[in-house]
Write a structure and sequence with these properties.
The protein is mostly helical. The protein is built from 12 helices and 4 strands. The strands form 2 sheets. It has a two-stranded antiparallel sheet. A two-stranded antiparallel ribbon has the order 3-4. α6 packs parallel to α11. The radius of gyration is 23 Å and the shape is elongated. The termini are close together.
Length: 281
């Protein structure tokens, strides 16, 4: 740590006429301490006067560095006598909201998002089938039980549970990158499930489609439990392609995603990224 601080002091002193560069350098070091686990969620950073001395910087430069970290949702800053900067858990939901806004600005369609799902989810289903995790299978089965009940009592909750089923597959597949990619578009998928449910809520024929979907999810769990990765992956791809066609047929023209309207159902967390717990020497 001493060598790092010495380097930072040198960098920040030579950049005294460039406070933005100095702030970025300090922010980079604090960011490194956060992501490597040296600073953990809930940890309070040293008081400002201590950090100023530690990094050899002015108060405005330090505050700019802290603002950079706050804008990345890495820390929260409380004002007042007992305030200060504290490390925040990394919330994937914050990144997902930015991704959703970007995709909407770009005019991304539901068909585009469905194609991403068809690329991401089937391999995750195959991986989960290879793992045959009892915990994952139990959660998937519990989701189906809740969905079957909601299909009779609360169709918006049914829509949310349908989206959640996919998230459970990626969450338990054993690949963190796949789950992160799925998490980034989860709210888009969830809103779309709710929207199409609301549009078709008065159609009696749609109830049969819901029951067919529940049976297909039960079959998916059975394939996973039997440990047949290739069959599970193929089945889930076919299921998603069929569901995509049904969903898109509810719209007369290509639909641009909409992430600005409030979801109709209760918000569920997308997930929290856990940082390493070990201390870096």
């Amino acid at each position: 740590m001493t060598n790092t601080v010495t380097k930072l002091r040198t960098a920040t002193s030579t950049a005294s006429r460039k406070p933005q560069k100095a702030a970025a350098t300090v922010a980079e070091e604090l960011r490194r301490q956060i992501v490597t686990g040296k600073l953990k969620p809930g940890d309070k950073l040293h008081p400002e006067n201590v950090l100023q001395i530690e990094f050899g910087i002015s108060r405005p430069t330090l505050r700019e560095a802290l603002r950079l970290l706050e804008s990345e949702s890495l820390i929260t800053i409380a004002r007042g006598r007992h305030g200060g900067a504290r490390v925040s858990p990394i919330d994937v939901g914050a990144a997902a909201r930015q991704v959703g806004l970007f995709l909407q600005i770009e005019g991304t369609t539901l068909e585009d998002v469905w194609l991403a799902r068809i690329i991401i989810e089937p391999p995750a289903a195959g991986l989960l089938a290879a793992l045959r995790s009892p915990v994952a299978l139990a959660e998937l089965e519990a989701n189906i039980v809740a969905a079957r009940e909601a299909a009779q009592t609360d169709l918006i909750r049914y829509a949310d549970l349908s989206a959640e089923f996919s998230m459970l597959i990626t969450q338990h597949c054993g690949n963190k990158t796949i789950h992160l990619l799925a998490s980034l578009i989860y709210n888009i998928i969830r809103r779309q499930h709710e929207h199409v449910t609301q549009r078709t809520i008065a159609k009696a024929s749609v109830d049969k489609l819901r029951q067919d979907s529940i049976r297909d999810r039960l079959k998916m769990v059975k394939l996973m439990r039997s440990g047949t990765p290739a069959a599970a992956e193929k089945f889930w791809r076919t299921y998603l392609e069929h569901t995509r066609d049904l969903v898109l047929s509810a719209y007369k023209a290509p639909m641009t995603i909409d992430v600005l309207n409030e979801p109709l159902g209760e918000q569920r967390p997308v997930g929290i990224v856990k940082r390493p717990t070990r201390r870096v020497p």
